[in-house]
Amino acid sequence: MANMENKSPELKVAIEAALEAGKILEKYFETEILREFKEDDSPVTLADRESEDIIKKIILENFPTHSILGEETGMTQNGSEYIWHVDPLDGTRNFANGIPIFGVSIALVVNNEVIIGVVYNPICRSLSYAEKGKGAYQNDIKTLVSKDDADHAIVTVDPGKKEEDKKLRRELQYILPSAFVRSMRDLGSTAVELAYVARGGLEANIQLGLSTYDFAAGVLLVEEAGGKITTLEGNPWKFPESKFVASNGVFHDRIIEEIKKQKEKLKI
Predict the structure, then answer these.
(1) Who contacts 49 (Cβ-Cβ below 8 Å, separation ≥6)?
(2) Nearest 5°: CA angle at 250, between 245 and 251?
(3) Of 93, 123, 143, which residue sits at a domain end?
(4) Is-contact 114 132, C-beta < 8 A?
(5) pLDDT at 58
(6) Residue 164's domain spans which residues?
(7) DSSP secondary structure string, 19-63?
(8) Percent of the chain having pLDDT more than 70?
(9) 121 and 154 share a domain?
(10) Residue 2 domain flag
(11) Total count of domains within the chain
(12) Last residue of some domain: 143, 159, 182?
């Protein structure tokens, strides 16, 4: 699956953890797995919890002084500047409904800079990874963002948590295709969508306020694949800002203009 030569110890561990977690997700996929719902009405399954447990175990066996922020178990704080941001199953709703668009997302952040990013979809055997300054890869083949203009573009918009962000998302999903984008999609997995941008499967992804473990790995993939990331206002983006546009850069400014228009219209 992954050639481990010329990879840092941290990237090797991230890949190992993602592959092991992927085995757990594969085992439970399309079974009668019990769904529960958290306070914010998002679903969680036994697969989420088991996946996070194995990821944390592998990371801490190799880097016992590192800290881990996991979606299911919160912060394991070891006072380290090295913090792993882990989503053990990004796309739980898809997973629980037998839709094979989901993934394990693991990122290592040091002083608010993402230096390692891994996204793995076990059903597609799709392993995307990047190391700061070393390019983005899918199954050991270097990936680059697409060169397609808006006429041929597929764009996704991921929801935020506030009501105003959800309103903006609805507007953008309706307006962008009528304005200039060829097609909008709602794939239900932020990490996978960003990985698709990095390998040229999507032209842009708009983020409206999710958690760092949802997007940390994906943003590094996009950056290392030659993509462009800015805030919704078009300013330089910095982690952990959760509202941004990640694209192939070809029609990025037009997306920013449309977001500004819709925000003015909605008075947000």
Answers:
(1) 72, 88
(2) 60
(3) 143
(4) yes
(5) 98
(6) 150-266
(7) HHHHHHHHHHTTS-PPEEE-TTS-EEEHHHHHHHHHHHHHHHHH-
(8) 95
(9) no
(10) no
(11) 2
(12) 143
Instruction: Please say whether the beta carbons of 114 and 219 come within 8 A.
Output: yes
Q: Is the pLDDT of residue 85 over 90?
A: yes
Phi (first) and psi of residue 169, to 5 degrees? -60, -45
Q: Which two tokens stand for residue 91?
A: 């796309």
Q: How many residues does the chain have?
A: 268
pLDDT band at 5 (very low <50, low <70, confident <90, very high): confident
pLDDT digits (tens, 9 = 90+) for 185-212: 999 999 999 999 999 999 999 999 999 9
Picking from 192, 218, 232, 189, the residue whose alpha carbon sits closest to that of residue 85 is 218
109, β-bridge pairs: 83, 114
Kind of pairing between the strands at 113-121 and 82-90: unpaired
- Do 116 and 10 form a contact (C-beta atoms < 8 A)? yes
Looking at residue 33, its pLDDT comes to 66
Same domain for 103 and 195?
no
pLDDT at res. 43 = 65
Residues 96 and 179 in one domain: no
Same domain, 133 and 165: no
Binning pLDDT at 50, 70 and 90, where does residue 119 land? very high
Q: 238: how many CB neighbours lie within 10 A of its CB?
A: 11
Does the pLDDT value for residue 244 go beyond 70? yes
Residues 126-176: tens digit of each pLDDT: 999 999 999 999 999 999 999 999 999 999 999 888 999 999 999 999 999
- Within-domain flag for 1: no
Is 3 within the bounds of a domain?
Answer: no
Phi/psi of residue 186, nearest 5 degrees: -125, 95
Contacts of 120 (CB under 8 A, 6+ apart): 18, 19, 21, 22, 103, 104, 126, 127, 128
Q: Are residues 120 and 181 in the same domain?
A: no
Residues 68 and 166 in one domain: no
Query: What pLDDT is attached to residue 234?
Result: 98
- Domain of 179, CATH number, reads 3.40.190.80
